[in-house]
Each structure stands twice: as structure tokens, then as C-alpha cells.
């Protein structure tokens, strides 16, 4: 691992992919496929900007990238802006059809992993052959090795929702144009061409639980609804059904705060 300090923290090194299972003992490093190059630096707000945002994406060959997002990434890269270390670690455990909150995925560790923000960018060696899953593993190892994180995975069972189509069928209209994200504005949710995975992730943020897309619907749709499950059922013909899911939480045992 090569670490170079400039005016801001800069980490550039070759990393390995995290294996899916561990024995539950604290882990610090792992080996396997890696970013060709990666940087992590403390976030510094732009005092001249009217507003700021926190977001990011790992764009693999199988990633659906909605247009209009304030954060984008070239193919084969992970780019995250203004994210806590806990938030970055949590992002590496997300799936295409489920979004979980940070506290559902990461716990323990020193307070600064939740309060300090970072910018991160990592580039795969072969951009045209790297999946989103590959990139997320690479980013996880970038963080584990760079911050010398020791952790273990803790099995947990948590409440969640399944997004399903009502018995009478859905009321969605087929979308048109470029695939987009979902707009939240003045108590309403709308999209011109968003898929159901994107809707499930958006609903997860609203209800504070993981929402699994089990609609079976493919492609993009246009819709508008008010916040709340009643509007979801009456206007879109979809429902949220309570369920329980088995999940793994990353418990941080130790991390090193790298400050130049």
C-alpha cells in the first residue's frame, strides 16, 4: 500500500476484492482484483457555491445511470462526493434493487467515521469489462486498507418492505426518452422514465426501511404521486408489503483517522 500526503489526504494504491464471507473475526486487509488507481481526500465545501450535495455512484457495465443526477461517473469508475466513511462503506453493500440506511449496514467504530466527509474516485483497469459489483468490492477494499479498518460481519434480521403490483394490476404509463431518476418536490414524487429498482430505492429513503423490488416490471415508467403509501396504491397500483429479511451489518472494531 502506497500512501502519499499532499495538502489534502491522497491515497493511491492497489487493492483487493473483499470476499463474501468471513468467520466473524476482525478483518483488516484482503487481496484480489483492484482499482488501477484511486484517490480519497477530505471533503472541502465550496464557499462560493449556492448549494452542495452528497452523492455518488459506481458505474459498471451493468449499471443503470439515470440522467440528471448531480453526480455522474465515467464507465468503470466509482465517484463519490461529500460522503462519510460509514456512508461509503454502506454504499458498497447496496444492491441494484434494495437500498438500506447507513445505520442498518454499518455500526460501531469511532465517531469521526460518521461525521467526517470525503471525496473518492477509483478507476478499474478494464473499464469495459468491470461490473458494478466488482467496483463496489474494489471500493470497499480501498477504504478497508486505506483507513486500516478492522471489522466483522454480524448477521441480523430486520423489517423491510416488498414493492409489489396490486391484484388489479398497475396504473403506470410506459416512460419515454432517457432513463431518469425520481424527483421529490413539494410533497410529490414524479418521474418521466424511471425503472422500478429506482422507485424502490427512493421509497426506501422515505419509509426508512429496505424496499425490495418484487414487481417483476421491466423497463422505465412515467408517474406522479403524493408522498405516502395511499397514493402509491391509488395512483400507481403498487403496494408495500411488510416482510423480514436476513442481512449482514458491518461492525467496525477499529479505524485509523488519516490526517496529513
The total tally of domains equals 2
Structural class: alpha+beta
Strand content: 35-45%
In the sheet with the most strands, the strands line up as: 3-7-5-4
Sheet with most strands: 4 strands, antiparallel
List its salient traits:
4-stranded mixed beta sheet, globular, alpha+beta, 4-stranded antiparallel beta sheet, single chain, 14 strands, 6 helices, 260 residues
Question: What secondary-structure arrangement, pairings included, does this model have?
Answer:
Blueprint: E1 3-5, E2 9-11, E3 35-42, E4 55-59, E5 77-84, H1 85-91, H2 102-105, E6 106-108, H3 112-115, E7 117-124, H4 132-146, E8 150-165, E9 173-174, E10 183-185, E11 188-194, H5 196-207, E12 210-213, E13 221-226, H6 229-236, E14 238-254
Parallel strand pairs: 6-14, 8-12
Antiparallel strand pairs: 1-2, 3-7, 4-5, 5-7, 8-14, 9-13, 10-11, 11-13
Helix pairs in contact: 1-4
What's a concise summary of this model?
Residues 1-27 have low confidence and may be disordered.
Describe this protein's structure:
The structure is a single chain. The chain has helices at residues 85-91, 102-105, 112-115, 132-146, 196-207, 229-236; strands at residues 3-5, 9-11, 35-42, 55-59, 77-84, 106-108, 117-124, 150-165, 173-174, 183-185, 188-194, 210-213, 221-226, 238-254. The protein is α+β, with helices and mostly antiparallel strands and 260 residues long. The protein folds into two domains: 3-155 and 249-254, no CATH class; 157-246, no CATH class. A hairpin with a 3-residue loop joins β1 and β2. α1 packs antiparallel against α4 (132-146).
